[in-house]
Amino acid sequence: MSYLSLQDVSLSLGDTAILDRVSMSLDKGEFVSVLGPSGAGKSTILRVLTGSLAAQSGTITCAGQPLARRNDRFAFMPQRDALLPWRRVIDNLTLGLEVQGMTRKAARARVMPHLAEFGLDGFERHYPAELSGGMRQRAALLRTVVQERAVQLLDEPFGALDALTRLQMQRWFEQRWQDARWTTLLITHDVREAVALSDRIYVLSRRPARVIADIPVPLPRPRLARAPCAKAHALEAQILDILLHQTGE
Amino acid sequence: MRHPLPRRSGKGLARGIPTLLSVASAFVLWEAYVRLSGISALVLPPPSRVLDQIVQNRALLWDNTLPTLHATFAGFALSLSVAFTLSVVLDFLPRLRKALFPIFVISQTLPLVAIAPLVVLWFGFELTPKVLLVALVTFFPMLVALVDGYASTDPDIEALMRSMGATRGQVFRAARFPSAMPYFFAGLRISITYAVVAAIFAEYVGARAGLGIVILNAKNSFRPDLMLAAVVISSLLTLALFGAAALLQRIVLRWRNPEGRA
Ligand SMILES: Nc1ncnc2c1ncn2[C@@H]1O[C@H](COP(=O)(O)OP(=O)(O)O)[C@@H](O)[C@H]1O
Ligand SMILES: [Mg+2]
Predict the structure, then answer these.
(1) Quick one: which of A172, B8, B154, B215 has the most CB atoms within 10 Å?
(2) CATH superfamily membership of B45-252
(3) Could you tell me the residue ranges of all domains in chain B?
(4) C-alpha separations of B56 from B50, B59, B226 in Å
(5) What is the per-residue pLDDT across B59-68, written as a single tens digit (0 to 9) for each?
(6) CATH 3.90.1280.10 correct for A28-54+72-247
(7) Which of A12, A16, A210, A247 to mutate for ligand 1's pocket (most ligand atoms within 8 Å of CB)?
(8) Which residues line ligand 1 (CB under 6 A)?
(9) Could you give the ipTM of this predicted complex?
């Protein structure tokens, strides 16, 4: 019995078909990545899940229930960081908690211990305009995970980071995920990242997006603490092949 | 990642210098023209004489500036509170917005010259008609600024907040209202320049005191020097209000230029 499931979800915007009978299912605590060419419709899937776009057909369920209008299971990290420019970093980090009714003081107490590992300590009183792209993305990621929701919906969360910071954040996320076992749907166009982090990978076609492959990644964890093994390389090659074949059509 | 930005205040002063120079040279030219052409001071008084009138009539000017300021502030406070309240209502009721907006546009097409005497006729020579006229003139730019400002909210931010379970009210307070602030200040600066003019015009049409009355009396007694003295005071008033608005904007919108952090 899957925890989060999309069945035959289709969506067009105007005359443009974006999603074509997309079906996905995630077990509770499963880490699933969605890989696909840019412009395929990956972000659109998260927009449908978070309710800002309505699918024209298909069903979505979470814990056996259709999605409620005000969903309290999802934490969402949009592709653009969507930091509120008029709020200081600390107040951006506590936004989700405050919206959900936590007092500012309690929310800050929850966020503060994580500032250092996110490289944000000393910047909590700054405004987003003063942060680098990488720092903004780390702030957006912290704002998301600190809500401790059962499902994490992450749209290219490591995309704007430099290689070193990316590896650090991926490691951090894998560790936290191993403790917390969030059901995670990670959007990415980075094949290596998908293989390094996921239990399973959905590969999307070009627009209109269809699921063209569902690939399990049966590798031991933690994966990012050591160098990638030969099996990981083989999987990466296999997925790249699927993607390249798709683009060549 | 703090960038070493130059100090703003120094730059602001430096930017003011060309303005000061051109204003000063205009006065010098004016003074020179009056002296060389021998034109009567009853037609065109030189700036030195206007300045002299300001000094000589300072008590009169001060006593009449206060009622004008009073009307300006009261009218502004009225239009600001009505514009804000209405903007919130309209933001939550888009259908009402579509129905009412044309009416507000029409309110802006009414010529002040024709409306002012009527308002004075209906409400008398006291404070009320001035307050109403200032409010009428300043209301619309602020309402439009707020309504447009709400609409400018980044849809990604709204989608994010809704994904967090935010109510419509929470989205308004945390996202839509702050998004409107830059627009609001643009509207405020436009409104402020209209406000003093509207107050003076309302006085001119009918009042017991105020800069408008000084101008009217000076005109009736053929005293262009005193008229110009009152005009100078009213421009200074507008400039001061404009400066206050700009200062307030700097403070409220600090997040846009955050280099001077607390
Ligand atoms: N309002 C719209 N009307 C038509 N097409 C749109 C609209 N918004 C987005 N699209 C298209 O939808 C496709 C999917 O977008 P998106 O989900 O953001 O892709 P990605 O996989 O890169 O995240 C893109 O090709 C984009 O051009
Ligand atoms: Mg995307």
Answers:
(1) B215
(2) MetI-like (1.10.3720.10)
(3) 45-252
(4) 10, 8, 10
(5) 999 999 999 9
(6) no
(7) A16
(8) A 13-14, 16, 18, 36, 38-44, 207
(9) 0.90
